[in-house]
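Input (structure):
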């Protein structure tokens, strides 16, 4: 098995507090690591590095764990730029535009959907994302939801059944819930790891607390892990339902009550914030600082989708989180890596300690702080050790 020494690392973010400076980021300076068989085999100061079969220099740049994007909607067709333009001139977002994407996605052949999916994943990787979750939700009938998940499986094992995205126009709510929790779930569960629901009584298109509970408990009963879209448009039952059901993550968390924060603080459920959505919908940003003060585990994700946030950039999300939600650069980076891993209940990604998957992202700067310090600049990219001796 070939080993590779990655060296000349100005700053290495391990996310292991037992390493380096003892902080949550586990920072090491003038560092190196050894990769063997796709896994981290050694981490430490450069001058103590063991011999390896090959070497790769990052030329005095920073190295961080690959970003873990734990919330994305990437199987779709069509374009909703006009909807974005309308929002920027005053039209409020309520989730209704999803129907436009559903029509385009249903009409697109498999090869078109897969090509766009692969292009978006490549775009993410070019910006440092190495793990991504992909949801269905733009099919909204049995055949198209199952098709979306089969296509998503081509690029990731982190696939989520989101048949309960919205109620399709012209379909009775009760009939649709019966479909989602019955025939559609049976067809989709073999291709999914998770079940999700848009729990949002503030939208006429989404689902209330009782309907959401029905969807989630049905998914859990067939072995799917639970995720929740919650508290995006208004304060509502999503957060507390997620905690009650032991969900891995509740995502958005834009409008939280004190009771919501208390519930999250006493649970393993991760609060996944999606500040790109607030940027793209002109909505208020969540208060990440308050969540962190309460002891809540926070993740950051892109929510890349054609309607409410068509951005695949986790560095952009990090910069927004620092500028708009009260996070420090270190807190935001941890949330975009280790936090995302916790939201997916993964222990092999989101850190660079020994035994981690060697998902490495190089930052074209001497420190991780530049991810927030230089917003919009393409500094981060996944490091492919198989393509070159180095990256300088």
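Output (sequence):
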């Amino acid at each position: 098995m070939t080993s590779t020494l990655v060296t000349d690392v100005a700053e290495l973010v391990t996310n292991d507090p037992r390493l380096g400076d003892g902080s949550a980021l586990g920072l090491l300076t003038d560092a190196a690591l050894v990769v063997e068989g796709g896994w981290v085999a050694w981490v430490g100061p450069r001058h103590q590095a063991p011999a390896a079969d090959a070497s790769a220099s990052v030329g005095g740049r920073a190295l961080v764990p690959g970003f873990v994007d734990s919330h994305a909607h990437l199987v779709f067709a069509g374009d909703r730029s006009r909807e974005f333009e309308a929002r920027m001139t005053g039209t409020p977002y309520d989730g209704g535009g999803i129907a436009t994407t559903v029509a385009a996605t249903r009409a697109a052949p498999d090869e078109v959907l897969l090509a766009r999916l692969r292009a978006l994943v490549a775009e993410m990787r070019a910006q440092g994302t190495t793990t991504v979750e992909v949801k269905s939700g733009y099919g909204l009938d049995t055949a198209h939801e199952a098709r979306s998940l089969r296509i998503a499986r081509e690029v990731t094992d982190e696939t989520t059944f989101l048949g309960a995205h919205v109620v399709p126009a012209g379909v009775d709510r009760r009939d649709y819930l019966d479909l989602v929790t019955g025939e559609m779930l049976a067809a989709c569960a073999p291709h999914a790891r998770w079940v999700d629901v848009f729990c949002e009584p503030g939208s006429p298109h989404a689902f209330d607390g009782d309907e959401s509970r029905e969807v989630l408990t049905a998914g859990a009963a067939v072995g799917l892990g639970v995720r929740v879209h919650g508290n995006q448009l208004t304060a509502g039952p999503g957060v507390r339902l997620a905690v009650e059901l032991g969900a891995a993550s509740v995502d958005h968390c834009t409008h939280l009550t004190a009771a919501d924060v208390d519930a999250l603080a006493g649970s393993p459920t991760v609060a996944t914030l999606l500040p790109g959505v607030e940027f793209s919908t002109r909505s208020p940003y969540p208060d990440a600082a308050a969540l962190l003060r309460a002891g809540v585990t926070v993740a950051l994700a892109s929510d890349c989708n054609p309607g409410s946030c068509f951005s695949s950039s986790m560095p952009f999300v990090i910069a927004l989180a620092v500028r708009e939600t009260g996070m420090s650069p270190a807190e935001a980076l941890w949330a975009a890596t280790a936090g995302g891993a916790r939201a997916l209940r993964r222990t092999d990604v989101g850190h660079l300690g020994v035994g981690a998957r060697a998902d490495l992202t190089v930052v074209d700067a001497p420190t991780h702080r530049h991810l927030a310090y230089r917003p919009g600049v393409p500094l981060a990219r996944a490091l492919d050790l198989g393509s070159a001796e180095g990256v300088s």
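Notes: The chain has 14 helices and 15 strands. The CA atoms of residues 105 and 155 lie 18 Å apart.
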